[in-house]
Amino acid sequence: DPVYLAAVHELVAATSVPARVSALAAKLVTLTVPGVPDLYQGSELWTDGLVDPDNRRPVDFALRRQLLAEAPAAGADVVLDDVGTAKLQLVRTALTLRRRHPRAFGVDGGYEPLRADGAAADHVVAFVRGGRVATVVPRFSFTLAAAGGWRDTRLTLPPGRWTDVLGATVHEGPVALAELLGRHPVVVLERW
Fold first, then answer.
1. Among the four 8, 27, 119, 155, which has the fewest Cβ within 10 Å?
2. Is 48 helix (H, G, I), strand (E, B) or coil?
3. DSSP label at 121?
4. Per-residue pLDDT tens digits for 35-65
5. Residues of the chain below pLDDT 70
6. Which secondary structure element, helix H or strand E, spans residue 7, and what is its range?
7. How far is CA 170 from CA 23, 52, 86, 176, in A?
8. What is the rounded CA–CA span in Å between residue 49 and residue 45?
9. pTM confidence score
10. What is the side-by-side strand order in the sheet with 187-191?
11. What percent of the chain stands above pLDDT 70?
């Protein structure tokens, strides 16, 4: 039915970017909250299955190696392509940080929630692990965009210089979320 297909295409067009942003946010939170991350082989790219991932499914490892080899350097804009390259890069980045800062993610690593202030403060989830790695992700990104974006909302980072591992920018103290999440839909920061 062409009317039905047109409605589905319209829905997908309106929700694909917020859905991909939400998928990146969920993946980054999964990889950085306390505990052992739940990873499914082959789910490093977008998945559209209606069931849980299955580690027994065939995985195109050659494609993943190719995408990682062609990945842009830190600082490049994140592209929410149809394959899921951004998700693959995010998984690699988060796992690299876990390896680089094992104490921050260990039993004694700690978890410190960060609070935002401003009109869209309810649309951000942010926390620090072990005083070294901060996760900042949007929530309800579809309604956030409909309400006018981040506007005056700010996040106060703990003392120190925080480097956006994906964007290669440095932040300190209170930072506008429009700036912090301006080029990348999710951010993972590392304090040196």
1. 8
2. coil
3. G
4. 888 888 888 888 877 777 666 778 899 999 9
5. 53-55, 73-77
6. helix 2-32
7. 25, 37, 21, 13
8. 12
9. 0.89
10. 111-114, 124-129, 133-138, 187-191, 162-164, 170-171
11. 95
